[in-house]
Structure formats: C-alpha cells, structure tokens
Amino acid sequence: MAGEPVLADLHFGREDAERDVTDGLLLRGGFLSTNATRAAVSGRKMLIIGRKGSGKSAICMRLMADGVHTGGKVLITPDDAAGDEIRRFELQGLPGDSAKSLIWRYVFAVNAARHLVTHAADAHGRKAGPVKALRRFLKQNDELPADRPGDRFGDRLAQGARGLQTALSLEAFGFKAGVELAHAPSEGARAARQLDVVEKGVADAFAELDCAAAHEPLLLLVDQLEQVWSVEPESNSMVIGLLLAAKHAAGLYGRAVRCLLFLRADIYDSLSFGEGDKFHGDELRIVWTDHSLRELALARARASTGAAGLSQESLWREIFPESVRGEDTAAFIFSRCLPRPRDAIQFLNLCQETAWLTHGRDRITDSDVLQAGRQFSAWKLKDLAQEYLIAHPFLERLFPLFQNTGYVVSRAALGSRFEEAAETLHRLFPAYAEALTPSGAIDILYSVGFLGVRRGNDVVFAGGGELPAQPHEGEFHVHPCFREALGATSAIDLRRFEPVAAGARIASGNINVGGAGNTGVSREYRLLAELTRSCHSILSQVGRAVGLAQDARDEITQQIDRVLNDVSAVRPRSGGYGDTAGHLLTAAHYFTSLAAQLRASGLDDTTGAGSVAQRIEDEARRLRRLAGGSFGSSGDSGGR
Q1: What is the pLDDT of residues 144-160, one digit of tens each?
Q2: Residues 460 and 447 sit within 8 Å (Cβ to Cβ)
Q3: What phi and psi values does residue 455 have, to the nearest 5 degrees?
Q4: Side-chain half-sphere CA neighbours of 413 within 13 A
Q5: Which of 277, 293, 553, 578 holds its CA 20 to 30 A away from the CA of 106?
Q6: HSE toward the beta carbon, residue 78, CA cutoff 13 A
Q7: How far is CA 396 from CA 184, 444, 450, 560, 605, in A?
Q8: Confidence at residue 20, expressed as pLDDT on a 0 to 100 scale
Q9: pTM of the prediction?
Q10: Which helix (H) or strand (E) holds 76?
Q11: Is 185 left (phi over 0), alpha (psi -120 to 50) or beta?
Q12: What is the rounded CA–CA span in Å between residue 170 and residue 159?
C-alpha cells in the first residue's frame, strides 16, 4: 500500500464541496454519511447548522446528486444582487422580519410553481387545471425560465419584489388584484394578500397531483447565505425572514415540499427574535469527532487511490508514520485541526504534498507531518481572522496577546496583557469598544475556537453545544491548531535548564580527585544528593497541585527532570567530581528563574501554581546555603 503509486495518487479532496464535485466525483466516492446527512435526507431536521468548513455544502451537494433524493430538487444560493434586494425589501405596515419573510415565501412559491409546470407532465403524465393556472401565472409575471435570458436569481427576485410592493398579475387564479386590493389597509397587507393567492395556487396543484403520497417531496435547499450576510440589522432580518418563510412553507405545503436551510453557526447564533424558540426542534448542529474525521480521511483516501480495501491500519501505519513525537499520528493531526472536514482535508493534503512534492518520498514521515503542521498553523491563524472578519474585524489584533508565550493563560494574566493593548484597540475599532474588554475578548476568543477553557481535568473548546466561558473560570488554553504560528508551543513560558557546570567539566576534561582514599561520604556526593532531594521535593509539590493543568504540570516536570538527568551526568563512574558547588548554584539560579516565570504566567493560586512556585523558591534558597558550606538540620530542612 505504501508504494509510490499510492502516495502519488493520494488526495483527500478539495476544500469546497462545489469543486469537490466537479473535480471527478471525489465527494460522492469519498463522502462520509453522518447523522447530519441522514437527518437532512429523512426530513427530520430543517436547519443544518455548522461552522465554516464543517460540511454543510457537502451535504447540500450530496442531496443534489443523482440517486440520493428521487424527488425534485431546487438549490437557492443568493448572489450579491439577490442579497441586496432582500436586505432593502420593506413594506409599509410590516416590521422588517415579516416583510422579508414575504419575499422569501414568494421565492419558495415561484420555485415550487416552476417545478410543478414540468413535473406534472414528466412524473404524472398530465397537467391538471391548477398546474395550467400556475403556468399562466409564471408567464404573465415573466417567471418562466425561458422568459428570462440567463435566468439570474437576482433579476427575478427584483421583479418579484416590485410585484409584491405594487401588484402581481393574478388573473391566472381568477383574481383581479387592482380591483380587489384597492382598499387594503397597508402596503404590507396588500402584499400578504397577493402572496396568499399565489401560495394557494401552488398548494392546490400539489394536492391535485397528490404529490405528497405519490413520491418524495420537492426539496428547496438554501445554501451560501453567508456570502450576502453582514452584521447590519437588515442582514439579520433577511435570515430571520428566511426562517419564518421556511416554517410557513412546511405548514402550508405539508409533505409535498421540504425546505432545508444550511446556515453558518455564527450567523444563526447571532439572531434574536420572538419566535426563535420555535425552531429548536428543527436544528441539527454538525459536530465532528476524532473518530468521524478518521473515517472521513479513510473514505477519501480509498476514493482517490482506488484502493477499496485500504484499512485504517494501512493508512496510519504504512502511508503515514505510526507516530509523531510519540503520539498516534491521526490523533496528532486531528487534535491540531479545528474539528471540521475542511481543516482536516487541508492538513492531510499538506502532509502528502510535503512528502511527495517537496521531498520526493514514497511515504509520509514524521518530519513531513511536523513541517506541514507549521505551515498549516500559519494558514489557520490567518483563516480564522478572515472567517470572522465581518463579525469581529478586530480579531487579528488579539492574537499578539498570545504570541511567544505559554499556551496556558489565566484570566488575570490575559487581563493584564489586554490592558496594554486596550487603547490601540479602542482607537482602531471605536464601534466595538463595549465588546473590547478582557471578559469580552475571552468570550469572543472562546466562541471562535481560539481559546478553550479548563473544566475539571478537561480543556473544552466551543463547537459541541458547550456552555460559554463562565465568569468564575480562570484558566484558558490556546487551541493546538494555532500554537506553532504563535510560537506558543509550551504550556508555560519556562526557560529550559542548561547544565552549564556539567558542560564545562566535560569540555575541560578536568576532574577533582581530592579526598581519594577517604572512606567517608564526600561533600561533593552529599551536595549532589541534596540537589536530587530538591528536585524530588519540587516534583512532589507539582504532583499535589491537582488544580494545575496537566500540560503545565508536564512542562514543569520536564524541566525538573532535566536537572535530575544532569545530576546523573555530573557523577563520574569512578571517584572524581567537578565543581559540584558551582553546579548547585547553577541549579539554584535556574530554580529562582523558574519560580519567577511561573508566577509571571498569571496562573491562579487556586490551581496550586503558587504553592509550586513557593516550593521551588524554598529549594533554591536551601541549595545556595548548602553550596556555601552549610550542612545540618537547619541547612537541609528546606521548610519541610
């Protein structure tokens, strides 16, 4: 499996579903059916909600593919002209949300009518009276596809909007709009009455053909709404109007029509309207786990290589390395992605390109994964700022708060860093001054997935329905995806222990053989034993700091272990010692620096960080006394 042809052919697909389809059926061959897909196909859910890159459009494209849904399908993707038309649409006598729901209802009704005009003859072999009326209506209002060259959605929508605001031609339904609506109390009431007539005509045609019982429903799919959305109130009204119209269509057309709306989570979550609670049962949020991303990777690897028998073991043992930095390769890769297909696809492809194109290898190595990871991290940090550029234009300006420091940060430390940048942020983004506070920054950084919050023994990142960061929560972690780009690859910004004394002794080749022949325990041996005791005392304190993040404890332990390892290197195989007192002073100086860095990290004392720092300082003082010649009960107690 790991031979040259497999790696050369291996490709995990395109980042966007549209190109994935046109590039040669990889989306179909490598499509992973998930609960979200099954819920969308079955009709149990109407709102498919997920972050950018989470696979919403992939599900949409899957439903549009031949053979997946045998009923009619209409894909509605507003362009700039259509989005502008809907945002500006208003009716005297109706609030903005209600007015925009009418324009969306019109879009649904017209698309259903156009479908029925061709569907009646093709699927039912006849054109019932209501269908003929629909055809006349479409023709009279220039809504037949042949009547509009190019059939641009924005152009048709503009004409429909003018018709609702003035008068549609409703003679096909036996309705004289100009006469019968002359005394409508408002522009909004007149538009609603006209729309009721059109929708009744569509519903009558579905009922006459008995479509609900005869075949699968017509799917009206709305996708890519984020392309025409902004943070302005009119944009929110556009989305709320869509939700209201979809709910109305579900009730009006029954099982003959099904609406599916694919919405970005940040857009949907920003909405606030009175009927919002009525949509909870229609929501399905796309959530990806490590397991589902592994399944996606395997499905796409099989599709691209043509190796239907490719197994998880072969993919992650023969094509990819078995481990990276001692961690299972798949776990290493997927933990450094935001949990969504687009990120996983990009990282996996980058690993393949690094190995095959850059280094000409026939399999991917751990160094290829690490090299790809550095490039990927830089991409994702930039992409995150772009993803939320409309909602949070200041986001990129918050990243320097985490640059070249530990990836574990306390609320207090972040507050201190933020205060230094606050003046500049408020000057550059005065409209967002209320949100640009330490707590506001934490809330935003958590919501976009940049920061996770420590809860118990776990670090939780947004995306799976978790609670927002709570005011009492004080420890946050930068997501592994962004650490390389920020230079924040250690839990705490701790300087590594450099064994200067041992290095000097080894380089000079000098050893001190004084005291040879003395059968007592030498002072040098006792000094090194005391340094070992200090290290174990600190490690014991770290072990008792159960409130301290595991990553932070591991980082401190790693540095203390370096000191312990150096003690072993200092001890010669036979009899002699170097400058042992100097070695103790070097270790004591390092301990003092380590304690200062730990305190400067801002970790809350309730985590045990303060106790660990105090123990390190105590041991540093004790070692200095010992190096100066003080031995005995008072000199080596260390406060224990």
Answers
A1: 875 454 557 777 788 88
A2: no
A3: -130, 110
A4: 23
A5: 277
A6: 27
A7: 52, 12, 11, 36, 30
A8: 61
A9: 0.79
A10: strand 73-76
A11: alpha
A12: 15
Q: Measure the CA angle with vertex 308, ends 360 and 19; round to 5°.
A: 70
Hey, what are 128's tokens?
A: 């019932």
Q: How many helices (H) and strands (E) does the chain have?
A: 28, 11
Q: How far apart are CA 443 and CA 468, in angstroms?
A: 7
Of 44, 40, 69, 67, residue with least CA distance to 56: 40
In this prediction, residue 160 carries a pLDDT of 85
pLDDT of 571: 59
Pairing, β 218-222 against β 257-264: parallel
- Say how far apart CA 512 and CA 552 lie, in whole Å: 39
Question: Measured between alpha carbons, how far is 247 from 239 in angstroms, rounded to an integer?
Answer: 13
User: How many CA atoms lie less than 13 Å away from 246 in the CB half-sphere?
Assistant: 27
CA 475, CA 458: separation in Å to the nearest integer?
A: 11
For helices 153-165 and 96-124, the axis angle rounded to 10 degrees is: 120
Distance CA 30, CA 297 (A): 8
Which structure tokens are listed for 196? 């009721």
Determine the average pLDDT of the residues in 24-46: 69
Q: Which two tokens stand for residue 470?
A: 């709570």
Among 451, 448, 457, smallest CA distance to 480 is for 451
The residues near 251 (Cβ < 8 Å, ≥ 6 apart) are none
Query: What mean pLDDT comes out for the span 617-623?
Result: 92
Contact of 10 with 318, CB cutoff 8 Å: no
**Amino acid letter, 575:** G
Question: Of the candidates 118, 119, 134, 135, which has an alpha carbon nearest to the alpha carbon of residue 71?
Answer: 119
250/461 Cα distance (integer angstroms): 35
Q: Comparing C-alpha atoms, which of 53, 22, 21 is closest to residue 339?
A: 53
